[in-house]
Amino acid sequence: MRKVLLLVVLLMVQYNYAQEIAPPTDWRCEGLVGRVKKVTCTITGLNSATESVSTMVFNPQGYIVSEFIEDRKLGIQTVEVVSKSTLEYGEYRKNKRKIVIKSEEEQTIDQEWELPNETTLKVKKSEDPPIEIIEKRVYNAAGFLEKRYSKVHVDTDDLLYKGLERENVIIYTYEKGGINTEQKVVNTLDTTFFIYKEQKLLFDKQGNVTKKIVFEENGVPKEESQFVYEYYN
After folding, report:
1. Strand 209-215 relative to strand 221-231: parallel, antiparallel, unpaired?
2. 3-state class of 5 per DSSP?
3. How far apart are CA 147 and CA 29, in angstroms?
């Protein structure tokens, strides 16, 4: 009896530890509702002839497995593809995973989930000189993005390239249950400036956003996003 009790205690400790280190799903981090299989987002610039199409694919457990991004330049009769990128997401190993960006120059991202509500992304670009980008995202208790810290480090003493270094904090504020979002940046000089304000207009039956408009500080529409979802049964 004592051995059985000890085994049960050990299993409970192991289960609690596994639950503790398990990162939240990408459904939650992306603010998605329901068992989303794929989401396609088309962003069209309202004051410029540009368009970006991205597709994110999720596994049944709610984690991203791949992402495709295509930037386009829209002409009157033709569409010019400016760039294409494919992101391959590895599985989490405890609280870490690798993301490989396959484009003109392949990059690798190390993503780490820092308990209880933070992620850290480290991007290393094998350029001359080498550039490292570190981004940290902080989520609130409801799962919404609260702050995003970004830092760019250039491994060189060349003052020309040193000018690329920067450190910013993006602060997200939500209104009306998260329908409207305002973003501001605080840089290394402690200067706060407006980025944009977005308004989510339409939702599908699951409650996911199907249309969003981003406004500049003067209230002029900047871009419009359309979202199409596929769900697991």
Report:
1. antiparallel
2. helix
3. 13
* pLDDT at residue 21, as a whole number: 59
Question: Is residue 221 pLDDT above 50, yes or no?
Answer: yes
Q: How far apart are CA 40 and CA 53, in angstroms?
A: 7
Tell me the pTM. Answer: 0.73
Helix intervals (H) in 22-125? 26-29
Name residue 129's amino acid: P
Q: Could you give phi then psi for residue 6, rounded to 5 degrees?
A: -65, -40
Exposed/middle/buried for residue 40 (C-beta within 10 Å: 0-12, 13-18, 19+): middle
Alpha helix positions (H), the chain: 2-21, 26-29, 159-162
Query: What pLDDT sits at residue 54?
Result: 96
Residue 198 has pLDDT above 70, yes or no: yes
Instruction: Report the greatest alpha carbon distance in the chain.
Output: 79
User: pLDDT higher for 58 or 149?
Assistant: 58
- Rounded Cα gap, residues 44 and 222, in angstroms: 9
User: In this model, does residue 3 exceed pLDDT 70?
Assistant: no
What one-character-per-residue DSSP string does 132-187 give?
EEEEEEEE-TTS-EEEEEEEEEE----HHHHTT-EEEEEEEEEEGGGTEEEEEEE-
Answer yes or no: are the C-beta atoms of 108 and 132 closer than 8 Å: no
CA–CA separation, 154 vs 125, rounded Å? 10
> Which range, 28-42, 53-67, 121-135, 143-157, is most confident?
53-67
Q: Strands 79-89, 131-139: parallel, antiparallel or unpaired by DSSP?
A: unpaired
